[in-house]
Amino acid sequence: MKPIAAEWGARSKTPDTRAEFWRWRRARALPEALPLSPAMRGAMIRGWFTARLIKHLELDERGVRIWVPDHSGPGGCYRDFPRPLLATDTIADPELLPAVLESVLLAMVEVNTRASLEPMAPYSRLRDLGRSGRGGGYESYLQPSAELLAWIGDGRGPVRDPEAGESLEERRKTAEHRFDRLHANYTRYFAEVERRTDVMDVPASYDLRFDVLAALSDLRRAVTHVADPAEEGDLW
């Protein structure tokens, strides 16, 4: 790993040298190239959209960061995904997710060189935000994750979203609307990509089209069934 880390360190300074570093190194479609099981990949994609909804992601010219809570206590901080990412061009919004996932390879290289799992913390956070229910699994998504459920319940998070609504019902409707809108936008985007005739004009997000649409459908379905605990009372 150290030779790879040294070469990346030397070539990560500009888009041209990053492109040279990564040229011809990925021979498969992105789902097969990522060192992630299908369940982990799906969970991270759900976690990405969850993090964007509940304002746990920060995106700016410096890079991409995600809120990672402390293991003990109520605190936490924003942690950087690899910076720079493997992507060499200005990243349009639909392509940011695949760029972040592909860059997990850089985080793994850094784990090896630093002898620490800390570089993987942002990806672990994505995974946990995409798990089913409170401490559930990753293979299926039957209930909103604990963080998404808490956000719908009381709007808690590192950043308050004034447009999310003041009540549980308003925030649930906000989540439904945003997941519906994202699903529609991605559906149109992928349909437009399918009409392209140049194979070099196919973006990385197209490789993840089935995962992305499935993740958004799972999230939309799960938030629909969130009910106010005060209304359920001791029914169950």
Describe this structure as you would to a colleague:
There is one protein chain. The chain is globular, with a radius of gyration of 19 Å. Strand 1 and strand 2 (63-69) form a beta hairpin. It has twelve helices and three strands; from the N terminus they run H-H-H-H-E-E-E-H-H-H-H-H-H-H-H. By secondary structure, the protein is mainly alpha-helical. The N and C termini lie far apart (54 Å). The chain has helices at residues 2-11, 15-22, 30-33, 38-53, 93-102, 104-114, 121-129, 146-154, 168-194, 204-207, 209-224, 229-232; strands at 57-60, 63-69, 76-80. A three-stranded antiparallel beta sheet has the order 1-2-3. It has one domain. The longest helix has 27 residues, at 168-194.
